[in-house]
């Protein structure tokens, strides 16, 4: 059944809410087909996947019911072995085995959904104004800032950016792609670390050393200012936290000495040292990208200039 109202804009996400995209569809089948392709789910098992409402898990298998849904409804695509889970439900920690690392790594996202929507998500308009001034901000923003812009109503975002509705939707798709890339980097890094850890010889003294490190730094720099609670939450709960932080937040982590960072994040000195190193490396990578974009922008302006202007 085709809709007489034409294509309507909706959002689609996967079962773990780690990926989402914008889809324009006039039928349930078209939404499912385009959603699978954009979320890279087109290689699902042969059994037909199901569609539910992301908000409450209501099954959407009727064309008429689908057409009754308002514009910008968020749908979720589920595999035959997946079930809808509320966004605030924390998945239990699973034992990691090399054969099931990828699935388990994705399962850990449940406990981190609320972190990504914290603080920055309530105020996306200042972020939109930053984008209007410099599109390269996509590189420097934190994951929560990117998500805030992705979840913003497209019409309001277009107005804030002084863009067309299609332009705003294209921007949201670009932001989602950037967010997906960070998540892919995180999972790849996490799987590699788990593999190396499994291959490494067991050191019985490692846990004792970790506890000693924490005790040694517990009273260090007692007069200094602690990191912002949002940064601490990311450091404590996120795997590869450097991918979740903005440039400004990365700089804050780098400025703290290792003992202070270990105290704030409730971790060992060695872990604090590794975290600082990874944050510095991520910041340098982003700044390098920013510089390349700025040079490209300057070069493009020169090409467009007339001989008289030069």
Automatic annotation (TrEMBL):
InterPro entries: CIDE-N_dom, DFF-C, DNA_fragmentation_mid_dom. One of its GO terms (biological process) is regulation of apoptotic process. PROSITE patterns: CIDE_N. Transmembrane segments: none annotated. The keyword Coiled coil applies. The keyword Ligase does not apply. Residues 158-188 form a coiled coil. Keywords: Apoptosis, Coiled coil. Residues 6-86 form the CIDE-N domain. It comes from the Eukaryota. Pfam families: CIDE-N, DFF-C. This is DNAation factor subunit alpha-like protein. It comes from Callorhinchus milii (Ghost shark).
